[in-house]
Amino acid sequence: MIWNETKEQMSRDEMTALQSKRLVKLVDYVYHNVEFYRKKMQAIGLLPSDIKGIEDIVKLPFTTKDDLRDNYPFGLFATPQSQIVRVHASSGTTGKATVVGYTRRDLDVWSECVARCLTMAGVGKDDIIQIAYGYGLFTGGLGAHSGAEKIGAMVVPMSTGNSKKLTTMMVDFGATAIACTPSYLLHIAEVLEQEGMINDIKLKCAICGAEPWTEKMHKDIEERLHIKAYDIYGLSEVMGPGVACDCDFHKGLHVCEDHFYPEIIDSATMLPQKDGELGELVFTTLTKEGLPLIRYRTKDLTSIDRTPCECGRTSARISRFKGRVDDMLIIRGVNVFPSQVEAALVEVDEVSPHYMMVVDRVNNLDTLEVQVEINPQYFTDEIRGLESLNKKITHVLSQALGINPKVKIVEPQTLVRSQGKAVHVIDNRKLY
Ligand code: DLL
Question: pTM for the complete prediction?
């Protein structure tokens, strides 16, 4: 499956043969270039020559986000730094970000995969596409951007944050496609409705992802904007957007499985699940040079279907995501772990370790309020003192999370103490 020749499909046997060949090469590559993998393999007495085909993948160890954190920033890179031409980063579970690196060839593969996804959504060289994912360390903006350029569409690099400018340019430029998070697109629909501009747009499709959404939200976007909406998936560690995307039939997201080998495991037993069974998605990057990953645990819950799709594509499909196996939240497209809040608050003497994160969705935009309990010795009725403490905590949290939360300081002993596992999150967002 290449982006401009979607009719030429590989049979399952051809795909398996390609994946096998690539896995054998990859294992040899990481064994000789990444100390972390060499040591992990040596610990279980595994040699590269023991991996003879894709069926042997189950012999290999898993990789987790913690492994990336422990080897921060570049410890898992397989090439000298001189061959890395770009880095991106996403939230780590505490303190340090998860850093990912790309060689020039990695960037080519990435834009190829995004181009396939956009092609599935019907985007071509005559389209004008607004990229409204964040540009910067987040992979969304630049990732979607280079795929759109590859197919020769006219790219408008909007990034996030100015809805009025976005809607005005959407109308003035006659944008035919948009790439952004689904909740943001619903917000854009509202702005267009309020401004009386909804009938002036030329939009025909949207490529939405980076956060969970439901069939109902998908339908709502299509009906309110009179467009077709497509689900695009990806994660920084594996590449960024473009690991998988759905087609016109919306019966699962086609995985670029010649580059990313998908497995579904039971996260309790770590054993493989059968096709169709729900479990944790695991990826092995078959062709990456900069940061190759073996059996990376995404923590995303889905199932896999390897039967051919009605669209004619033969690639494996993963179902719409059913949630996560950890406590990661996605707020305005940014990944946030409660442990990051905890680690940041420890730095502030005036507050206790008791906190509560309240997440809401107002006008389709996510909000985060962090309630923190002040330490009894700092408790005072003086408003000015509290205001400056509030500013300080807001600063510390925005630095740690990459989003600006609203901070509410509460009196000592106010937040609910739980009997069992501490509850630190109230998520009021209704993914209807
Ligand atoms: O969100 C990459 C991306 C950008 C994907 C733009 C699609 C569009 P991260 O910041 O590393 O990368 O977050 C990855 O976001 O493990 C999922 O939990 C979630 N996620 C991404 N796409 C979808 C989707 C980007 N279509 C994490 N549906 C992943 C549900 C998604 N969840």
Answer: 0.92
